[in-house]
Amino acid sequence: MVAVAVWGGRWWGRRQVERELARTGQEREQILAAAQREAEALKLAKITELNATYKAREEELERRIKRQEEKLERIEARLLKKEERLEQKGLELLRIEKSLKEDLKRLAALIEQGESLLEGERKRLEELSGLSAEQAKELLLRQIEEEAERFFAKRIRQIRERAEAEAERQARKIIATAIQRYASDEIESATMSHVPLPSEEYKGRVIGKEGRNIRAFEALTGVEVLVDDTPDAISLSGFHPVRREIARLAMEKLLEDGRIHPAQIKKQVEKAKERIAQRIKEEGQKALLELGIDGMHPALVELVGRLSFRTSYGQNQLRHSLEVAFIASTLAAELGLDAQMQRLAKRAGILHDIGKVVDHKVEGSHSLISAELARRYGEPEEVVHAIAAHNEEVEARTILAVLLQAADALSAARPGARQETFEAYIQRLQNLEEICHSFPGVQEAYAIQAGREVRVIVRPEEVDDDMAAKLSYDIARCIEEQMEYPGEIRVHVVRETSFVETAK
């Protein structure tokens, strides 16, 4: 019974499994059939979509192909037109080439004919002129050279005039200021003072212990003390002449007293300053008294006195200023100017260089400094202008300014006024005239203004105006190369053509 129940249970279970398997198989078949149907539907949709895309792309491609074909047709049409034009140009070029060949043949014939004509004309010219071809060529070259020389002479004159107008004023101002402020007029005589010593042992006393005395002396005077191998003497060096004179007087007093130490040095330097100040005042008053000038500001009197300690090329500046004052006054009298103008000429002459004694303290040239000082201390405007214009840094607008320029030049150019031997002076004038005579076309040459100017007279039939300008330039450059001289030398070339006829 149990076995039957077990077998029955197994049989029932197997039936149940079989039925479940059968149902599962049916469901699988159904799912597979559904999946197959869905796949077919998707495949059909994808194929439809691809067909649509392909058709759209095919249409787009056809449109592009059509546009390219139209473009190619247009290009082909343009190329055909260009080809037609090129064919026409080629035909034109062939015609031109043929015409050029014909022209070349005619030109060759003309050249040959012209050469034969030129040869015949050359022979005729040679027979008529009596010159060969080489001689005519040389003559033509000489004419061309002369024309070129005249052209370049004219250009040189124009360039020089422009350069002088642009650069002369500034160059003169810069050079004059630099020379006056930074260069010594002489090497030793204007910068050194020598003080004799009682004996050699005083050199050690002047130096002092560890240089104490000499340092104190240099600090108080602003002058360098040179204790060298010079026997029984020491030297005082400095560019400031007043300081150097104060140092000389103080050193002489110290050596005379014998007591040399910082306190005594200070005392003697102060006394020397007082003596120099009094001497400056006396020199200024003496110069004004000599000229008969009164009513001048005390500061200007002191500046005039300081000129006695200043030299230029060995010429004492106070004596130079006195000469200029006298010459300017004399020129004014000779021109018939009134007494007031003569007095103004003296004032301008004595004051025209006072800027030189202060130009190490004030910027600018001594002419403008002198004029500013004169204006500051109440001098008349005519005097101020004449002082400012005496070196041509300001244009001379009055007769007084012109007279002062002439007087200054006369005093400075006077033979012997500045350090130069008479023989050297004469030799320099002769050298100037010889250099001028060495140039072709020069008839006469005269050195004037003590060698500051040379007048050159040329033959007018040999030298024209343009060549005269070039000649003055060449002579000036030759003088610069071959001579040594102070200041400037002006070369003045004169060309004159005169015609004389007698009336009968």
Walk me through what this model shows:
There is one protein chain. This protein has 504 residues and is mostly helical. Among the domains are: 79 residues, Ribosomal Protein S8, Chain: A, domain 1 (2-Layer Sandwich), CATH 3.30.1370.10; 122 residues, Orthogonal Bundle (Hypothetical protein af1432), CATH 1.10.3210.10; 73 residues, 2-Layer Sandwich (GMP Synthetase, Chain A, domain 3). The protein is built from 14 helices and eight strands. The strands form three sheets. The protein has a three-stranded antiparallel sheet with strand order 1-3-2, covered by helices on one side. A three-stranded mixed sheet has the order 6-7-8, covered by helices on one side. Strands 4-5 form a two-stranded antiparallel ribbon. About 1% of the residues have low confidence.
- Outline the low-pLDDT stretches: 181-187
User: Given the helix and strand composition, which structural class is it?
Assistant: mainly alpha
Between the first and last Cα atoms, what is the distance in angstroms? 199 Å
| Shape designation | flat
Instruction: Report the sheet-strand fraction.
Output: 5-15%
Regarding quaternary structure, how should these chains be classified?
A: single chain
Protein traits:
504 residues, mainly alpha, Hypothetical protein af1432, GMP Synthetase, Chain A, domain 3, three-stranded antiparallel beta sheet, three-stranded mixed beta sheet, 8 strands
